[in-house]
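Incident review: delayed structure delivery

Summary: a single-chain prediction request sat in the queue longer than the usual turnaround. Root cause was a stuck worker, restarted by the on-call engineer. No data loss occurred. The affected request and its eventual output are reproduced below so the record is complete for anyone auditing the incident later.

Affected input:
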Amino acid sequence: MTPRIWVAIDESDRAAVDRLLSAIEPHREVKVGLELFSRLGPHFVRELSNRGYDLFLDLKYHDIPRTVGRAVAAVRDLGARMVTVHAAGGLAMLKAAVDAAGPMTVVAVTVLTSLDGTALREMGLTLGPQEWASELANLAREAGVQGIVCSGDEVAAMRSLWPSARTVVPGIRLLGQDAGDQRRVVTPTVAVQRGATDLVVGRAVTGASNPRAVLTRIQAEIAGQGGNGHNDHS
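Output delivered after worker restart:
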């Protein structure tokens, strides 16, 4: 199955969000992150769901199990299709998220694409990004999480480690585009070739003068690159 493309809607106000949604029509798969959720709130998320958008809530929950379970249940009721939690929250927290999710897909964030080996060492970790991502992926799999978020650098290893997982890859850039604050970026084609089932595309599309044209280009680039063996895109 052709990988899903989630367009990251990270605008700061309602008018800007509406302009961007119009600019990518008829694309309906959007990712709502912390900034938009914090500014416009659950009511707007529910409105988007009611308008027929498939919603990926990238809220990266990381707290005690009881709190995360209740938070996941709350966004489930908003009509979200997928939500993120931090794998580093631990086994009990991940299980609480899964138990509360119902039909909603839970994916666990492994290593943020803004982090590299230097940043991990600054945090006191001796493992590199791929090794740490593998440890966290194993934990998420044990908890019953449906998939993981990882960079394009790790996705091939994650697919080998966990072939049935949803593998969500952010940090997508077209050739020649600025990486911004991301450290580990990859092109759409490379991400899909390595086994990504879902791509998260933000500034590569939303910062373009013609977002729909760039989105169409990405769709064309990955056409025929699917067939990664993971067909459950519920």
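Verification: The chain is about 45% helix and 15% strand.
Action items: add queue-age alerting; document worker restart procedure.
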